[in-house]
TrEMBL record, chain A:
A Pfam family reported for this protein in Swiss-Prot or TrEMBL: BPD_transp_2
Ranges in a coiled coil: none
InterPro entries: ABC_transp_permease
Topology of the protein relative to the lipid bilayer: Multi-pass membrane protein
Signal peptide: none
Organism: Octadecabacter dasysiphoniae
Keyword Transmembrane: yes
Protein name in UniProt: ABC transporter permease
Subcellular location: Cell membrane
UniProtKB keywords: Cell membrane, Membrane, Transmembrane, Transmembrane helix
Domain of life: Bacteria
Residues passing through the membrane, by range: 12-33, 53-75, 87-104, 110-132, 139-159, 202-220, 241-265, 277-294, 301-318, 324-345
From TrEMBL, chain C:
ABC transporter domain sequence ranges: 8-243, 260-508
Listed PROSITE patterns: ABC_TRANSPORTER_1, ABC_TRANSPORTER_2
The UniProt record lists the keyword ATP-binding: yes
Taxonomic source organism: Octadecabacter dasysiphoniae
Protein name in the entry: ABC transporter ATP-binding protein
Keywords attached to this entry: ATP-binding, Nucleotide-binding
Origin: domain of life: Bacteria
Gene Ontology terms for molecular function: ATP binding
Gene3D superfamilies given in the database record: P-loop containing nucleotide triphosphate hydrolases
Pfam families tied to this protein: ABC_tran (PF00005)
UniProtKB/TrEMBL annotation, chain D:
Keyword Transmembrane included in the entry's annotation: yes
Species name: Octadecabacter dasysiphoniae
Subcellular location: Cell membrane
Alphabetically ordered keywords of this record: Cell membrane, Membrane, Transmembrane, Transmembrane helix
CDD domains from the UniProt entry: TM_PBP1_transp_TpRbsC_like (cd06580)
Tree of life domain: Bacteria
Protein name: ABC transporter permease
Amino acid sequence: MDAMPKWADVVLVPVVSLLLAAIISAIVFVAVGQNPWDALKLMAYGAVGTSDFLGYTLFYATNFIFTGLAVAVAFHASLFNIGGEGQVLLGGLGAAIVCLYVPLPHWSLALIAGATAAAIFGALWVVIPAYLQARRGSHIVITTIMFNFMASGLLIFFLSGPMKPIGEMQVATAVFPAATHLPSLHDVAQMFGSEMFGRSPVNISIFLALIACVGVWALIWHTRLGYEIRSFGKSESAAKYAGISAVNITMVALLISGGLAGLMAVNNTMGINSPQLVDNAAGGAGFIGIAVALMGRNHPVGIVIAALLFGALYQGGAELSAATSIPVQIVVVIQALVIMFTGALDEMVRAPIEKLFLRSQRAGE
Amino acid sequence: DGHSAGPAIIYDLGGKFDKSFNESAFNGAQRWAEENGSEFAEFEITADAQREQAIRRFAEDGNNPIVMAGFSWATALGTAAVDYPDTKFVIIDMVVDAPNVRSVVFNEHEGSFLVGMMAAEASETDVVSFVGGMDIPLIRRFACGYAQGALAANPDATVIANMTGTTPSAWNDPVKGSELTLSQISQGSDVVFAAAGGTGIGVLQTAADEGILSIGVDANQNYLHPGQVLTSMMKRVDNAVYESFAAGDMVEPGFNVMGIGNGGVGYALDEFNAELVSAEMQEMVDAAAASITAGDLTVHDYMSDETCPVLEF
Amino acid sequence: MSDIAPAIELVGISKAFGPVQANKDISIRVMPGTIHGIIGENGAGKSTLMSILYGFYKADAGEVFISGQKTEIPDSQAAIAAGIGMVFQHFKLVKNFSVLENVVLGAEDGALLRPSLAKARKQLKSLATEYELNVDPDAIIEDIGVGMQQRVEILKALYRQADILILDEPTGVLTPAEADQLFRILGRLKEEGKTIILITHKLREIMDITDTVSVMRRGEMMATVKTSDTNPADLAERMVGRKVLLRVDKVPAQPKDVVLDVRDLNITDDKGVHRLKGVSFQVRAGEILGIAGVSGNGQSELLEVLGGYEKATGEILLNGDPIDLTGAYSDGQSRRARGIAHVPEDRQHEGLIMDFTAWENTAFGYHHDPKYQRNGLLMDNAAILKDAQEKMGRFDVRPPNPLLAAKNFSGGNQQKIVVAREIERDPDLLLVGQPTRGVDIGAIEFIHQQIVALRDQGKAILLVSVELEEIMGLSDRIAVMFDGQIMGERLPDQTNEKELGLLMAGMKDGEAA
Amino acid sequence: MDFFTFVQLGDASVRMAIPLLLACLAGLFSERAGIFDIGLEGKMLAAAFLSAAVSFASGNVWLGLLAGIGISVLLSVIHGLASITFKGNQLISGVAINFFAAGLTVVIAQGWFAQGGRTPSLPNDARFNGLDFPGALTRFRDKMQASPGMQFYSEFVSGHSILVYLGLLTVPLSWWILYRTRFGLRLRAVGEAPEAVDTAGISVVRLRFAAVAICGILCGIAGAYLSTAVQAGFTKDMTANRGFIALAALIFAKWRPWHALGACLLFSLFFAIDIQFPRLELRVVWIMVLLIGSGVAMTAYALRKDKIDVIVLGGLSLVLALVALLAWRGEMSDEIGAIAALFETVRVPSQLIQSLPYLFVVIVLAGFVGKAIPPRAGGQPYVKER
Ligand SMILES: Nc1ncnc2c1ncn2[C@@H]1O[C@H](COP(=O)(O)OP(=O)(O)OP(=O)(O)O)[C@@H](O)[C@H]1O
Ligand SMILES: Nc1ncnc2c1ncn2[C@@H]1O[C@H](COP(=O)(O)OP(=O)(O)OP(=O)(O)O)[C@@H](O)[C@H]1O
Ligand SMILES: [Mg+2]
Ligand SMILES: [Mg+2]
């Protein structure tokens, strides 16, 4: 028998972990002279206080859904794709090339073309790490970290050279043609006569993210490929026995993962108010994806919830830093704590809970 | 609601206390606040993604005018400004064409020309150098002006110019600044001009350590290493901010150039570098400044055609 | 006798691993200068008990007395100090260290290595002459054979001056000759007054060299008796809790056409070791070919080649058509498509995904089967679930709940899930590796019946097992493997365990006869 | 290039190698004991901050160094708790520590000094300054005119901060500890076979914590070196990926101290070249030979393997060939023909030079420079009881 009911694993453990992260975060707030309760209120207001703020929260959450899914798909194959950051950048490059150099008459076409290009570029960026992992056993974590740095170099090369408009100072491409600009949720709301989401950049890519969630769910639990990915992830030796090719699954799982990460670029290049690709387009979303996947237990539903939480944290943190003297890096600290407690210190939380359940089971017998 | 919450300033990524550009902007705001006993709102962004959000935040809070220091604000401001027609915006170092935006740019090439002359005069090796921050047209404008000045003072001089990088992190990489300086020293340079934001701190430090002269930028940085900083190329961002704050919501939109003539750029002379600047050096530089103001001397502006006649990048 | 304190006395030892109660209130006494055997089925808790004595695990309850003194053993350091040495079932050696370094590790004399190593080198030399335990002190562990590695483990214990030596299934990896030598050494140690505890599954070893024997079952100590007062049948009964039927009921085989024809199969692994050396044999429809041998002599590799997850050179014909051994169709999926089903040796690491539910495991390996698909894109999970339910019913898997994760079934029931999946494919050829390892006697009977029934349907079956009894009972023909070669073939009713044992030890066909 | 340029290149390499080397040896101790640590970066960063802050506040750089070591060890202990005590995922713990340090240094720096997340500049006597050996020249201008021997002595040998010399000393020291002491034997064993260590009666937990603590100390020195010797103060993210490059160097060095020195010097040479030759130019023909050559080699290798190798390596070769052709086309103007364009030079993008260490790591990992086998028990917690 399992020592713990499923709900405890899926809900109780993450909630306790989050609470612990919150407690340490509170201590950090106190240490920098901020009342944690006030900070929490400010952050909560900043995250959902107005429909604009909510829009920003959703915008960030969209990013994190993509990267969370990316990490999760690889996790199911027991592979740790820490290269989301780089894949997002390359995805951005793909989207930018399509939007800038291919005449696209309408945003719907731009969405399809941009998303395809972003996914392909993101996937391509993980080909070599995936190949090296599959074929030569080079550790995917180290290779993808290296590819993150190289992605940043490559992107800067393009954005400060070939793709930079003459006379511009910013390391960025030109602003994309208006036809490629994705409708924001505000535009959508306006069709219904609402002013929801105001000027926030949340846009229809959020639906793309949700479609991706459904896609990943179907892939992982309802297709042969997903079955093979999970088998390989749970037991490499058993997969070998079943005739599941380690090389193929490693490659395919990572390519899908890279493609999903690349897709995020649609949101943060074509979706933002001045659609363009800037040099630090990923903004740490690749790493946040790790926390999102961990907290979401690698399930799309969990990932959406975790992504919303991190979106709120990100947006709330930005507002907090705008209202107080606390730098926005406080978000990074909280994020680190969440990763630490939900990821690395999982056992610390889980073991006592498991013991409690075991004891009550024994007592019940 | 129309009620004004006072002026606001938003700094660029380098941060308020970069001892340079942003700090200079802060000083201007601070001076205005002290003189008027008023307060102003301020914000230091830490990521590009925050730009538009920050502008909107202040605009919605009713701050007026909203000053932003740095060219990187242009895109965000261009998008946001139209939504707040009643708010006045001031952008420094870049031009944004909108009815409620005042764009302030400086003739950095002119100021750089002056310190270039001083550098060549002070050099014993006839090699002077330049460390730029991020490799962008604006910084090349500094470099080009500096090289022209150096060659004007000493046609035999050699000018070495290096950029720290091509990303915003180049504004904040004192380690690399220091290494670049050492490399330049090895090529014979004995005066180094840093136009590199926070990176410049490393340049000035290394120059001081190695016993060569350095030239600060934006704010007066002479005090950082007394007797070892030849001068500072003053870019009176503080004045621009001060004036904008003083004008309040009456800030005049449009294009505003600050050059030598109107005190926008210049070189610093104070007790910390008095011994380094000889009378004839000062005379020569002041003469050049006068002829630039008079229009007798034109310093080539890199940004006018993205070329520099005397320097290759 | 009662005035001599026992060398070891364990009182009321209990130990749980999470929900598994591995040891339940166990008490045992071992007199000094004796060899004490411990037997019990897989998972009975033998290793756990000894590991507690050695300080590797901490008991939940119970006390330990060494030579009559109550002794706390919080860690192995304390056990070593109390004069206990242990050779684990799975050796605890640092593979890329030299023999010398392994011996010295943890028994160094000072903060600097040099003096310790020099001293150990001298000591090893004298131990080698004393006990015939010759090992090259500078050899790297991963370069020497398992027999040698075991010597190193024994030397480690002796170097630490152990008076009490625990050996956990030491002969599992040894040839009979090596085992004999080990027992000679144990005999000499006993003469010197050392106390030895020997865990083994082999009743013959118990009868041959132990003075007393304890039987464990399901975490409990069933009995401790004098070896001279018991016999193998009695021990077996105590071990499993009821009379043991060692023979399988079956009618004589009626072999038909050759289904599997293996010709000159060779494997060289990535370390350059020749694993299979020209293996050739045939299996006909309607017969069971049993392959006997000490584990590690190439049987696993043979199954892996046939199962499609190891490459080899040579030729394999299935129903007369060659099988792809290295190319694009040399994988498990292609093998299954050709009608080869495979009950792997290691159900936990190969046959099942322990974290998957029983129903998911039912499709494992056959997830491309059209009957499990809803359409070209999606799998039909409902169909798999239904299929699983039926199979579990037919094979009496307990509990018959397909939603339970595989890891939550007992070993025997896990094995039934695997056997059900493979047999129900109606294969032309069934590969079976160690079908009853760690399975209780009831399940053994059931599984054996299923295998025989499949044979009677006219299928070809290749059985690999290290249990000679199983081979003898189930096979229609027996081939013996040693060192990657087939040493000879016998018919079960025309041979005996002794003859097979000699073949397993590498005697040539003629010599063994 | 004259001799002094070489001396300078060497000098810069050594200077840049020290933080890499210290971090690399830190990783070496940790990973040799079986604890993977991608949190080297974060520990260095935290140490860089705190040592600068304490040096500034106290005016005593040694106190600063101690504080840096202290915080780095503290983070190590947290990593130890997560990965040793609670048997958590070591990679995730490392990621968390990197984030934690990156965020908290800025938050606290802002809270204490309100200078945009950096510390104030350290005055000279609150830094580790260069040690000038007797008779050594100190100024570049003097050195340039000196004899080669003097140049070597003054530039390469003399003038580094004490931490450089200490850092270099840690190499033989680490080697000696690992291979000549009881502690070293056990440490190496616990990374290979913790169960062997455990059954030998040695505490796996204690050993691993000791290793992790040593890792913390070395990272602490590395961080302090950056902010108090190389620089005069802390700036945000000042470690600039050195922790990751150190990890890569560790793999390249196959977890051996002397090799680590070599690997770090090699990597820091890339940095030195980037700084020393900001405008590196290369003949088009060499680019073509290099890129197309390696493309051909890869394709040849792939053709002897499977379909997947052909797709991946063939595709990569095509990309390389394309880059080579672009470089060539780019130079081909009206006046000069196709052949002459081959002998033109093109500027190597600085991003490429900066990416070279990372690229190099990938090539190393690919196993083309020799297979690197990590400690066998590395990355996995030692679990006795499930
Ligand atoms: N480290 C462990 N963590 C959790 N459970 C364990 C552990 N070791 C053993 N067990 C469980 O404890 C029980 C007893 O195992 P033990 O290894 O003592 O059996 P054994 O009698 O030695 O069996 P075998 O003959 O297979 O060696 C089994 O159910 C086993 O699964
Ligand atoms: N030593 C033991 N003491 C108590 N319970 C045990 C022991 N070993 C196993 N169990 C229980 O029996 C269940 C089956 O585990 P295990 O595979 O060890 O069983 P088994 O007795 O060998 O069964 P099978 O005969 O089917 O192989 C476990 O879930 C556990 O709860
Ligand atoms: Mg056992
Ligand atoms: Mg069992």
